[in-house]
Amino acid sequence: MDRYFNAFKKYRGKLLGLKNVVGVGIGYKNAGGNDTGGPAYIVYVEKKVHTSNLARSHIVPRRIDGLDTDVVEIGTVRMLDVRTSRERPCQPGVSIGHYQSTAGTLGAVVRDKKTNELMVLSNNHVLANGSSVQEARAKTGDPILQPGG
Cα angle at 79 between 76 and 85, to 5 degrees? Predict the structure, then answer.
């Protein structure tokens, strides 16, 4: 997968510039509705269009640097709601963040198996003011804001 991630950085912008492309990622190729188990660049389009109806420069190649691609139709992508208002009770999907960091999204409310205490789940950079466990700068008891800063 490292090979895919390294090449992805190089080709992401070009793929996003193609007509009808609304997103790109790395995942597993599907063929005929079945997961092939093989890694692929996933290219998300609003609607699949036959190559005969596209300019050659806007056709997603079958392979990039020898790596498979998979075109997936997902329809129109639109933001459903801006969830940055103050919400009580706080629910998954709203804006939260460490008081010294940027905002992110509350992913879920979870329960600690040992204490049965309710807790919030989100990304490290949202709650721990860092982008990795090694970089976390938050301390136990630091305020988490809702909405995030």
Answer: 170
With CA atoms as reference, report the closest residue to 104 among 145, 45, 47. 145
Burial (CB count <10 Å: 0-12, 13-18, 19+), residue 144: middle
Say if pTM beats, i.e. exceeds, 0.70: no
| R_g over Cα of the chain | 20
* Residue 133: predicted pLDDT: 64
Q: One-letter amino acid identity for 121?
A: L
Residues near 138 by Cβ (< 8 Å), separated by ≥ 6?
98, 100, 127, 128, 129, 130
What does the pLDDT look like over 44-93, one tens digit per residue? 999 999 999 999 999 999 999 888 999 999 998 876 677 788 888 888 98
pLDDT, tens digit, for every residue of 99-112? 988 889 999 999 99
